């Protein structure tokens, strides 16, 4: 009878902290994935050219300003690659 009450064999409480930790990790991973899914994930921001195109489309800048700014952006990108 004493043998049944011991901490020896079986699936006792010794494993409980490990399973709680695994459960917590799974919950955190699920939460992170849900947050990324609903907030757009790891998408990069828009490029400078994309923003410039949008400004032109909305009429916020003239075509002359667009051409001048686009040339500056492209020149800057070329210099950064070197």
TrEMBL record:
Q: Which UniProt keywords apply?
A: Membrane, Transmembrane, Transmembrane helix
Q: Transmembrane region positions?
A: 12-38
**What Pfam families does the annotation carry?**
SHOCT
Q: Where is the SHOCT domain?
A: 48-74
Instruction: Read off the InterPro entries from this record.
Output: SHOCT
Would I find Transmembrane helix among this entry's keywords? yes
Name by which UniProt lists this protein = SHOCT domain-containing protein
Origin organism of this chain? Salisediminibacterium beveridgei
């Amino acid at each position: 009878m004493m043998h049944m009450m011991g901490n020896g064999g079986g699936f006792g409480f010794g494993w409980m902290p490990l399973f709680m930790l695994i459960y917590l990790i799974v919950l955190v991973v699920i939460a992170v994935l849900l947050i990324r899914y609903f907030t757009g994930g790891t998408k990069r921001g828009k490029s400078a050219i994309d923003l410039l195109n949008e400004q032109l489309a909305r009429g916020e800048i003239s075509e002359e300003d667009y051409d001048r700014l686009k040339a500056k952006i492209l020149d800057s990108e070329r210099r950064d690659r070197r």
